[in-house]
Amino acid sequence: MIFPRVDRTESKFVIPLTTKDALVTEVEKHAAYDQEAGGVAQYPIISQYYDNAFRDCYWEKQRGQQSRRKLRIRVYGSDQSDIPPTTFIEVKHKCDGRGVKRRRRMPMQQALDLAEGRVDGREIKRENMSREERMLLAEVLSLVEQREFKFLCTLRYDRQAYVGADDAPDLRITFDTGIACRFEQLDLRADDQRFEHYLLDRDLCVMEVKTNTVVPSWLRDLVGDKHLVRQGFSKFCTAVERYDPVVRAAIYGPNTVPFLKQEDVGERDGVLPVAITTRTARTT
After folding, report:
1. In angstroms, rounded to a whole number, what is the distance separating the alpha carbons of residues 56 and 149?
2. How many other C-beta atoms lie within 10 A of the C-beta of residue 179?
3. Averaged pLDDT for residues 209-226
4. Contact indicator for 206, 233 with CB cutoff of 8 Å
5. What is the DSSP letter of 36?
6. VTC domain location, by residue (predicted)?
7. pTM of this prediction?
8. What 3-state DSSP class applies to 92?
9. Dihedral (C-alpha) 160, 196, 148, 233: value to the nearest 10 degrees?
10. CA distance 243 to 248
11. What is the per-residue pLDDT across 115-134, written as a single tens digit (0 to 9) for each?
């Protein structure tokens, strides 16, 4: 089954956890837990990203290319939570400032085989699936075969997700904490804890507001009351800038250390070089 989410805008805010707690109290007066995510308060997300040797996904974002795509496998939930492990293969397409996510739920091994080029395109044509599903899988194969996408990195975080009520049914608000990455390809697991490199200080999180139409007035007032400032924080680009030797060599020179030493950056290497990936913008 294919699960398209189409054409919506998003705003991001990097906020202290103390602010998050105050926001959640207000958000829960107007929104409910996301039923698509099992209707639970919080769940882990593992995202495995693919890119080519030129790091097209990273540079297209930095150049502000109007149409760009990312390929990833996402695993939601865990064996210990109310959401059992669920795997999707996804193409995230950003076009003219609006996001489209095309994805299909499938067994984890099948998603890995597809993203890593172990599937023959002729087999897809023979399978019994909808036209949209065949188009998505053909798109994945084209990224793998024609643009030579391969494994690049894995990210994890814990997400708290809300959806709007009847007055804003297209509204989605998420809070992501414990955002971490690794560039070593280990076996893909739900709720994997094998991460050492965190992208934010432990007292910070990322709040995202997504909508197809307009942000409701109660949320606009809440953002204003808390003096929140919108930021262009990309988990993928921040991880790549900090830890990918290829991009670090291009930005900082060929002799830079790709992985910062623990003693240089503190207890959880929480000092974030945000000069490139984070841009402040007007308040929503």
Report:
1. 9
2. 22
3. 92
4. yes
5. G
6. 8-241
7. 0.85
8. strand
9. 50
10. 7
11. 999 987 777 667 778 888 88
